[in-house]
Protein backbone atom coordinates (compact mmCIF):
# COMPACT_ATOMS: atom_id res chain seq x y z
CA UNK A 1 0.00 0.00 0.00
CA UNK A 2 1.36 3.42 -0.96
CA UNK A 3 0.45 6.66 0.75
CA UNK A 4 1.64 8.65 -2.30
CA UNK A 5 3.02 11.16 0.21
CA UNK A 6 5.96 12.13 -2.01
CA UNK A 7 3.61 13.16 -4.81
CA UNK A 8 1.23 14.89 -2.40
CA UNK A 9 4.11 16.93 -0.99
CA UNK A 10 5.50 17.83 -4.42
CA UNK A 11 2.14 18.92 -5.81
CA UNK A 12 0.79 20.37 -2.58
CA UNK A 13 3.80 22.63 -1.93
CA UNK A 14 4.45 23.76 -5.50
CA UNK A 15 2.93 27.20 -4.99
CA UNK A 16 4.71 27.77 -1.67
CA UNK A 17 7.98 26.63 -3.23
CA UNK A 18 7.63 29.16 -6.04
CA UNK A 19 6.77 31.93 -3.60
CA UNK A 20 9.85 31.17 -1.52
CA UNK A 21 12.06 31.36 -4.61
CA UNK A 22 10.66 34.80 -5.40
CA UNK A 23 11.56 36.41 -2.09
CA UNK A 24 14.04 39.22 -2.77
CA UNK A 25 16.93 37.68 -0.83
CA UNK A 26 16.63 34.39 -2.70
CA UNK A 27 16.24 36.09 -6.09
CA UNK A 28 19.37 38.12 -5.41
CA UNK A 29 21.24 34.98 -4.36
CA UNK A 30 20.25 33.11 -7.51
CA UNK A 31 21.46 36.08 -9.58
CA UNK A 32 24.82 35.98 -7.83
CA UNK A 33 24.27 38.90 -5.48
CA UNK A 34 25.43 37.51 -2.13
CA UNK A 35 26.58 39.70 0.75
CA UNK A 36 28.74 37.81 3.24
CA UNK A 37 27.37 39.41 6.41
CA UNK A 38 23.78 38.55 5.50
CA UNK A 39 24.74 35.08 4.35
CA UNK A 40 26.52 34.19 7.57
CA UNK A 41 23.43 35.25 9.53
CA UNK A 42 21.45 32.78 7.44
CA UNK A 43 24.01 30.07 8.22
CA UNK A 44 23.64 30.88 11.94
CA UNK A 45 19.85 30.55 11.72
CA UNK A 46 20.20 27.28 9.83
CA UNK A 47 22.47 25.96 12.58
CA UNK A 48 19.78 26.38 15.23
CA UNK A 49 17.05 25.03 12.94
CA UNK A 50 18.89 21.92 11.80
CA UNK A 51 20.18 21.25 15.31
CA UNK A 52 16.59 21.33 16.61
CA UNK A 53 15.22 19.22 13.76
CA UNK A 54 17.92 16.58 14.03
CA UNK A 55 17.70 16.45 17.80
CA UNK A 56 13.94 16.01 17.76
CA UNK A 57 14.00 13.39 15.01
CA UNK A 58 16.65 11.48 16.92
CA UNK A 59 14.37 11.47 19.97
CA UNK A 60 11.85 9.61 17.83
CA UNK A 61 14.30 7.21 16.18
CA UNK A 62 12.20 4.25 17.39
CA UNK A 63 8.93 5.84 16.28
CA UNK A 64 7.14 3.58 13.71
CA UNK A 65 6.92 6.46 11.22
CA UNK A 66 9.61 9.03 12.05
CA UNK A 67 12.22 6.32 12.52
CA UNK A 68 11.86 5.32 8.88
CA UNK A 69 12.59 8.82 7.52
CA UNK A 70 15.45 9.69 9.88
CA UNK A 71 18.57 9.39 7.71
CA UNK A 72 21.75 10.40 9.63
CA UNK A 73 23.60 10.91 6.33
CA UNK A 74 21.40 13.94 5.72
CA UNK A 75 22.30 15.68 8.98
CA UNK A 76 23.68 19.18 8.52
CA UNK A 77 24.56 20.33 12.05
CA UNK A 78 28.24 19.36 11.82
CA UNK A 79 28.73 20.94 8.39
CA UNK A 80 27.09 24.14 9.60
CA UNK A 81 29.51 24.21 12.54
CA UNK A 82 32.37 24.07 10.03
CA UNK A 83 30.93 26.98 8.06
CA UNK A 84 30.29 29.04 11.19
CA UNK A 85 33.92 28.55 12.21
CA UNK A 86 34.94 29.91 8.82
CA UNK A 87 32.62 32.95 8.90
CA UNK A 88 32.89 33.88 12.60
CA UNK A 89 36.06 32.21 13.89
CA UNK A 90 36.56 29.58 16.58
CA UNK A 91 34.41 31.49 19.08
CA UNK A 92 31.38 31.54 16.80
CA UNK A 93 29.08 30.21 19.54
CA UNK A 94 29.57 33.46 21.43
CA UNK A 95 28.75 35.60 18.40
CA UNK A 96 25.73 34.09 16.68
CA UNK A 97 22.13 34.59 17.68
CA UNK A 98 18.80 33.35 16.43
CA UNK A 99 16.61 35.88 14.61
CA UNK A 100 12.93 36.37 15.47
CA UNK A 101 11.77 34.34 12.45
CA UNK A 102 14.35 31.66 13.20
CA UNK A 103 13.17 31.48 16.79
CA UNK A 104 9.57 30.91 15.68
CA UNK A 105 10.81 28.18 13.32
CA UNK A 106 12.72 26.36 16.07
CA UNK A 107 9.81 26.71 18.47
CA UNK A 108 7.48 25.11 15.94
CA UNK A 109 9.83 22.14 15.46
CA UNK A 110 9.99 21.58 19.23
CA UNK A 111 6.24 21.94 19.54
CA UNK A 112 5.23 19.38 16.92
CA UNK A 113 7.87 16.94 18.13
CA UNK A 114 6.09 16.88 21.46
CA UNK A 115 2.52 17.01 20.23
CA UNK A 116 2.43 15.39 16.76
CA UNK A 117 5.87 14.06 15.77
CA UNK A 118 4.68 12.78 12.39
CA UNK A 119 4.69 16.40 11.22
CA UNK A 120 8.48 16.45 11.49
CA UNK A 121 8.38 14.71 8.10
CA UNK A 122 7.26 18.01 6.58
CA UNK A 123 10.32 19.83 7.88
CA UNK A 124 12.68 17.06 6.86
CA UNK A 125 11.24 17.07 3.34
CA UNK A 126 11.24 20.85 2.98
CA UNK A 127 14.83 21.35 4.05
CA UNK A 128 16.75 18.19 3.08
CA UNK A 129 15.20 17.60 -0.35
CA UNK A 130 15.83 21.23 -1.20
CA UNK A 131 19.43 20.95 -0.02
CA UNK A 132 20.02 17.89 -2.15
CA UNK A 133 18.22 19.23 -5.21
CA UNK A 134 19.72 22.71 -5.48
CA UNK A 135 22.72 22.44 -3.21
CA UNK A 136 25.45 22.31 -5.82
CA UNK A 137 24.00 25.22 -7.78
CA UNK A 138 23.78 27.35 -4.64
CA UNK A 139 27.27 26.30 -3.61
CA UNK A 140 28.75 27.42 -6.93
CA UNK A 141 26.92 30.76 -6.70
CA UNK A 142 28.21 31.31 -3.15
CA UNK A 143 31.79 30.42 -4.12
CA UNK A 144 31.79 32.87 -7.03
CA UNK A 145 29.91 35.69 -5.31
CA UNK A 146 31.94 35.64 -2.09
CA UNK A 147 35.29 34.61 -3.61
CA UNK A 148 35.48 31.45 -1.52
CA UNK A 149 38.36 29.04 -2.02
CA UNK A 150 39.31 25.47 -1.11
CA UNK A 151 35.76 24.55 -0.07
CA UNK A 152 35.78 27.05 2.78
CA UNK A 153 32.36 28.30 3.89
CA UNK A 154 30.33 25.82 1.83
CA UNK A 155 30.49 22.59 3.86
CA UNK A 156 26.71 22.85 4.29
CA UNK A 157 26.24 21.88 0.64
CA UNK A 158 28.47 18.81 0.81
CA UNK A 159 26.87 15.43 1.52
CA UNK A 160 29.95 13.28 2.02
CA UNK A 161 27.92 10.21 2.99
CA UNK A 162 25.64 10.40 -0.06
CA UNK A 163 27.72 9.64 -3.18
CA UNK A 164 24.65 9.32 -5.42
CA UNK A 165 22.33 12.22 -4.64
CA UNK A 166 19.84 11.37 -7.38
CA UNK A 167 19.60 7.78 -6.18
CA UNK A 168 19.22 8.87 -2.59
CA UNK A 169 16.38 11.27 -3.44
CA UNK A 170 14.58 8.40 -5.18
CA UNK A 171 15.06 6.27 -2.07
CA UNK A 172 13.81 9.09 0.17
CA UNK A 173 10.67 9.58 -1.90
CA UNK A 174 10.02 5.83 -1.97
CA UNK A 175 10.32 5.78 1.82
CA UNK A 176 7.78 8.62 2.02
CA UNK A 177 5.35 6.63 -0.12
CA UNK A 178 5.76 3.53 2.05
CA UNK A 179 5.07 5.28 5.36
CA UNK A 180 2.06 3.80 7.20
CA UNK A 181 -0.09 6.93 7.26
CA UNK A 182 -3.68 7.64 6.28
CA UNK A 183 -4.96 10.40 4.00
CA UNK A 184 -5.80 12.71 6.89
CA UNK A 185 -2.25 12.56 8.22
CA UNK A 186 -0.89 13.00 4.70
CA UNK A 187 -2.90 16.18 4.35
CA UNK A 188 -1.63 17.42 7.72
CA UNK A 189 1.98 16.81 6.64
CA UNK A 190 1.44 18.74 3.40
CA UNK A 191 -0.11 21.60 5.35
CA UNK A 192 2.87 21.65 7.72
CA UNK A 193 5.27 21.62 4.77
CA UNK A 194 3.58 24.71 3.38
CA UNK A 195 3.93 26.34 6.79
CA UNK A 196 7.62 25.39 6.77
CA UNK A 197 8.09 27.17 3.44
CA UNK A 198 6.39 30.18 4.99
CA UNK A 199 8.79 30.13 7.94
CA UNK A 200 11.74 29.97 5.56
CA UNK A 201 10.33 32.95 3.65
CA UNK A 202 10.11 35.01 6.83
CA UNK A 203 13.76 34.30 7.55
CA UNK A 204 14.73 35.36 4.05
CA UNK A 205 12.65 38.52 4.37
CA UNK A 206 14.50 39.42 7.57
CA UNK A 207 17.78 39.14 5.71
CA UNK A 208 16.43 41.14 2.77
CA UNK A 209 16.64 44.35 4.79
CA UNK A 210 20.24 43.64 5.75
CA UNK A 211 21.11 42.87 2.14
CA UNK A 212 19.55 46.10 0.84
CA UNK A 213 21.43 48.13 3.45
CA UNK A 214 24.70 46.39 2.61
CA UNK A 215 24.26 46.90 -1.14
CA UNK A 216 23.33 50.55 -0.53
CA UNK A 217 26.44 51.05 1.56
CA UNK A 218 28.59 49.40 -1.11
CA UNK A 219 27.14 51.68 -3.79
CA UNK A 220 27.66 54.71 -1.55
CA UNK A 221 31.27 53.75 -0.90
CA UNK A 222 31.89 53.22 -4.61
CA UNK A 223 30.39 56.60 -5.52
CA UNK A 224 32.35 58.31 -2.74
CA UNK A 225 35.60 56.78 -3.97
CA UNK A 226 34.84 57.89 -7.53
CA UNK A 227 34.07 61.43 -6.42
CA UNK A 228 37.20 61.57 -4.30
CA UNK A 229 39.29 60.25 -7.15
CA UNK A 230 37.71 62.74 -9.53
CA UNK A 231 38.42 65.64 -7.18
CA UNK A 232 42.02 64.52 -6.79
CA UNK A 233 42.51 64.25 -10.54
CA UNK A 234 41.00 67.72 -11.01
CA UNK A 235 43.26 69.22 -8.35
CA UNK A 236 46.28 67.58 -9.94
CA UNK A 237 45.33 68.94 -13.37
CA UNK A 238 45.03 72.46 -11.96
Describe this structure in words.
- With 238 residues, this protein is mostly helical.
- It has a single domain (5-210), classed as Heme Oxygenase, Chain A, CATH 1.20.910.10.
- 73% of the residues lie in helices and 0% in strands.
- It contains ten helices and no strands.
- The protein has helices at 5-12, 14-21, 24-30, 36-59, 66-69, 77-88, 100-115, 120-145, 165-177, 183-237.
- The relative contact order is 0.18.
Quick overview of this protein structure:
The chain is an all-alpha fold and 238 residues long.
Tag the structure with descriptive keywords.
mainly alpha, globular, 73% helix, 10 helices, Heme Oxygenase, Chain A, 238 residues
Mean pLDDT: 89
* CATH homology-level superfamily: Heme oxygenase-like
Give a quick account of the main beta sheet: strands, pairing sense, barrel closure.
Answer: none
User: What gap, in angstroms, lies between the N and C termini?
Assistant: 86 Å
Shape: globular
- In CATH, what is the class? Mainly Alpha
What is the name of the CATH topology?
Answer: Heme Oxygenase, Chain A
> Low-confidence parts, pLDDT < 50 over ≥5 residues?
214-221
> What oligomerization state is this entry in?
single chain
Structurally, the number of domains stands at 1
- Into which percent range does the helicity of residues fall? over 70%
SSE order, one letter for each helix or strand: HHHHHHHHHH
What is the CATH-assigned architecture?
Up-down Bundle
Rg over CA atoms, rounded to whole Å, is 21 Å
Strand content: under 5%
Derived from helix and strand composition plus strand pairing, the structural class reads: mainly alpha
- The number of helical segments is 10
